[in-house]
Model the fold of this input.
Amino acid sequence: MMARSACVEFLKWALPQLGLRWGGFRKVRRQVCRRLSHRLQELGLGHPSAYRAYLTEHPEEWVVLDRCCTIPISRFFRDRVVFDALALQVLPTLAHSTVQRQAGRLLCWSAGCASGEEPYSLSVLWESQLGHRFPGLGIAITATDADPHLLERARMARYRPSSVCEIPCHLRDRAFVRDNQDFVVRPEFRETTELRLQDIRVAVPTGPFDLILCRNVVFTYFDDALQHRTLERIVATLRLGGALIIGLEEELPDRHGLDDWAADLGIYRKVTLETPGPARDGQAGRGQSPWT
Done:
């Protein structure tokens, strides 16, 4: 394991060249430093300074370094209060709007989906709690990530007990099958999700989407300039009246036509004159939890 000070010095040099910011990596630096140490061992390099020289001589190595800085921290129903808000207010409101314009599917995008926990959580929530209230209305989820290894894990849809610990038992029994110690998402909860290899820094899927979840990636790890550019692209793919959800501890660098829906939960709405009253009251998710 390389010395902590040497790793921090290296990250402060390298991250800006990847469009990333050191401040977002403070809490996860140990995980990144472990990966960097392993990579240096693979290359037979003894110190980060040697790795800097290697990057200069082998620019293709920046792709490897970029993957070393990927932080795939996720679990099902992460931040349950946000999923309460989705179940109580956000998804019903968006579903009503979708029915009113006579569309057949609620279109959602999970950006930076990692191993698939977030999009599958959304699918489980819709199929088990909300779908029966909107007969004839389906849900289609586009889930993107830049890491092919994480997407392969998402396609397997196999998870350790620690990944499903926040799911209520009755939903866990309905949505998963046990395979030894693992929990595997049942096929009917996977078929609504399309997994796609895509780097949000380079491209975004074609919208418009009714709901976009972009949590704990862009507005934590990207630098200011890249946050602004990425947010502009995200909002461009969001339907008027649609919802954007970011991480609980994240802040938007700009509004770009977004208004508060429940800003304390990281929930915003693309403003439009046709926005119905209940969607503008800033009280998404207030009330009794649907899990109780």
